[in-house]
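Practice problem 4.
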């Protein structure tokens, strides 16, 4: 495993991170495989499965040395029925973090991520609360996820003025979904913000496991309906052609997709999950892989018009009205 600095900060993260959104219930073996592979960076969130994702991650990491880990959790999504149980208000940031610290069995979080933009809460309120939490030593750094370039441009000066080290953004970014390249990544590079790239296997589509009209019962698409719009016969045919590119490079399809994401100079780490320890071990081998220009060109030619680049597709929705 190789390591990169996160943005302009002094914090080093593993090129592959482990996220436990879908696999936390049976994830102890996966977490151990991640540790064995040199992965030091772990992602979870307060709202995932009612907090159980944090509880299970803490249990799986119990034998690891805390100072060796970069522990990331996040806030935004509803965590309860109350009107203040979601969003980025001062109240919710504070109560959510205290719950996360308790479930994670730690005194501090390395990177506290604002998982979406909150249109109803002033940025000044959000970052003043973060500033207090930084001074209290409960969070070391702050990050965002799926924020637009405009939102980041507005937030960074406020964060700087209030002493909040805003060093990370987590966009959806893959061979197929490149909407962050046009605006978000250049803005982040100038602001010293690094990328935690997520969904880099395109809900499993870029692993090559899917065939037209077939959904394996143990696959991501069988469990998560958001993957199914990607199962277009023409797209799956194009992805299938990437197998030859991967074979020539000596990589699995998943390794090729993860290595492609790591070629971008603003990407510090790629966040992946896995359904087995073997997948974690294999995915980790994408670290340190350099893809030559010929491979990158072949990928672009094969995927062609299926690549999404429109920056307006950055997903930063408002909360439901009841919140």
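Answer key:
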């Amino acid at each position: 495993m190789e390591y990169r600095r996160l943005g302009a900060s002094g914090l080093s993260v593993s090129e592959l991170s482990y996220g436990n959104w879908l696999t936390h219930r049976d994830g102890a073996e996966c977490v151990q495989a991640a540790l064995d592979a040199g992965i030091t960076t772990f992602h979870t969130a307060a709202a995932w499965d009612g907090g159980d994702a944090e509880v299970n991650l803490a249990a799986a990491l119990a034998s690891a040395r805390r100072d060796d880990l970069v522990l990331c959790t996040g806030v935004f999504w509803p965590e309860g029925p109350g009107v203040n149980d979601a969003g980025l208000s001062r109240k919710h940031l504070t109560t959510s973090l205290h719950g996360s610290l308790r479930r994670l069995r730690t005194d501090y979080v390395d990177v506290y991520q604002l998982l979406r933009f909150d249109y109803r809460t002033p940025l000044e309120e959000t970052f003043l609360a973060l500033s207090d939490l930084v001074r209290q030593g409960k969070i070391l750094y702050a990050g965002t996820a799926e924020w637009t370039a405009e939102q980041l441009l507005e937030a960074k000066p406020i964060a700087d003025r209030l002493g909040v080290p805003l060093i990370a953004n987590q966009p959806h970014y893959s061979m197929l979904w490149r909407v962050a390249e046009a605006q978000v990544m250049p803005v982040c590079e100038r602001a010293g913000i690094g990328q935690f790239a997520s969904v880099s296997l395109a809900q499993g589509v870029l692993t090559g496991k899917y065939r037209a009209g077939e959904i394996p019962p143990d696959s991501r698409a069988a469990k998560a309906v958001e993957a199914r719009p990607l199962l277009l016969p023409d797209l799956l045919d194009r992805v299938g052609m990437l197998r030859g590119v991967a074979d020539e490079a000596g990589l699995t399809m998943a390794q090729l997709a993860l290595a492609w994401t790591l070629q971008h100079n603003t990407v510090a780490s790629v966040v992946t999950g896995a359904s087995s320890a073997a997948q974690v071990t294999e995915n980790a081998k994408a670290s340190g892989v350099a893809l030559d220009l010929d491979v990158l060109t072949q990928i672009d030619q094969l995927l062609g018009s299926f690549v999404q680049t429109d920056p307006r597709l950055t997903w930063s929705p408002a909360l439901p009205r009841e919140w």
